[in-house]
Description:
The complex is a heterodimer of chains A (364) and B (81). Chain A has 364 residues and is mainly α. Helix content of chain A is 74%, strand content 0%. Chain A has helices spanning 10-28, 30-35, 39-63, 69-77, 79-112, 118-135, 137-163, 179-191, 213-239, 241-246, 250-256, 267-297, 307-320, 325-339, 341-360. In chain A, helix 3 crosses helix 8 and helix 6 (118-135) runs antiparallel to helix 13 (307-320). Chain A is globular and about 65 Å long. Chain A starts with 9 loop residues before the first helix and ends with a helix. Chain B has 81 residues and is mainly α. Chain B has one domain. Helix content of chain B is 79%, strand content 0%. Chain B has helices spanning 2-23, 27-44, 48-51, 55-74. The model of chain B has no long low-confidence stretch (mean pLDDT 92). Classes of the chains: A mainly alpha (364), B mainly alpha (81). The interface between A and B is large, with 46 and 43 residues.
Amino acid sequence: MKPHPDLISPGQLGCLLFSFLSGFSTLFLMEAKMVKQDVWVSYLLGIALSGGMLWLLCYVQRQHPHLSMFEVFDRLLGRWAAKLLLAVYLVYILEIQAAAMQALTTFYNTVVLPNTSPDHILLLIVLSTTYAAYLGLGTIVRTVQVTMPFFIVAIVIISLFILKNVDSNPFLPMFRHRLPEMAYGGLLSFYFPFGKSVVFCFLLSHVTRKERLYAGSMTAVVLSGVYLCAATYLTFGSLGMQLSTDASFPFFSAIQLVKFGEYLERIEIMIIGIWTMFTLFEVIVLQYVFTKIVGHLFGLNKTQAFIFPVGLFFFVIAQKSFPNINDLTLYNLTIAPFSTLIPMAAIPLLLASLTYFTKRGIPR
Amino acid sequence: MLNLAIGVAAFSYGVAAFIRFRRTKENRDAFVLLLLCGTIAVYCLPGLGDSLPTVEGVYKIVYRPVSEYVQHLFGINWEDT
């Protein structure tokens, strides 16, 4: 029998989640600029918090194996409260897609295409993601599986070459920052990148073996953390602490130092090409999930027709948000860690509590 | 110019899909799609589009006091970073 095109295995879910988290994670290294050599503590906090939220969401999905997460919202909260909380996720997706698209546009405009209008780059991104989201979840996941080996091989090779420039352990001396600073760094890494994994709660019902849900997704979060930590280590080690803090895109500044002889000195261009594909997967997943939420929220029959206008909606919102990179940086550092707490932590906690009490038959 | 083209494209797509959905009696899909495409077209209007709210703009107003309080509580000083 031919499998359903939108059903995926736990391993495929893990691959998609890894690409979703890892694409943008090394772009700014925000928390690394803040807590410098103690950044690994912040990463651990971010991974632990995200792991906890993912566990809660997987628990909720396992208790309702035959329902989609939208239907779980309806069952646990009632129709109107469910609509309200799903609307919170719509706003959350609009917020992080605008930040992601502006980050990618700024990066391209600064490093690769300085003479191209940012709006044109935004439009190209939206057209690519619209086409990918239109093809469906099964196709997106298989594309990730095809591109992932290229990404991993390219990053491993470039990392080995950067490692040659690292003379001493840049994470030493340890614990030079106060606990509140490391905690704030943890909050930053929970917002970006690890906490974004909550969006995947809407894809959990597409996974075939529900007992492996948590293992598949948590492996991806941990591997994404390892990649981020390694990138930070190499950046600090090769550029030094001061230059890493001053650079807009520190990991790519470190990559630019790598030269393979005389002929391949612009190796970073190839890396940027492969990396761009990975960053697009984030926007693709957000567009796919956003369309599904809109479909459930308004009781629509044919959500396929909404993918294109949702892409254009992403375009206009991203275009009107974050007029320059300083706005984006300031927003990511001071506003987003708090504005995203409701969808990333409060709602998963609420759903898990309601599931637990409903299962135990304890009156709410 | 680009925004104008996108606004026209969104509006045209919305009207075409609205008519198609109405023919197949999927009224809810038709109206929601028209509303979404209309919103996009309004955002693309010169002048008016720039004054419409974004998530970033609203959240900056809502969450700034919370953020400033927590930064003060944690003793975060961005001058050091």
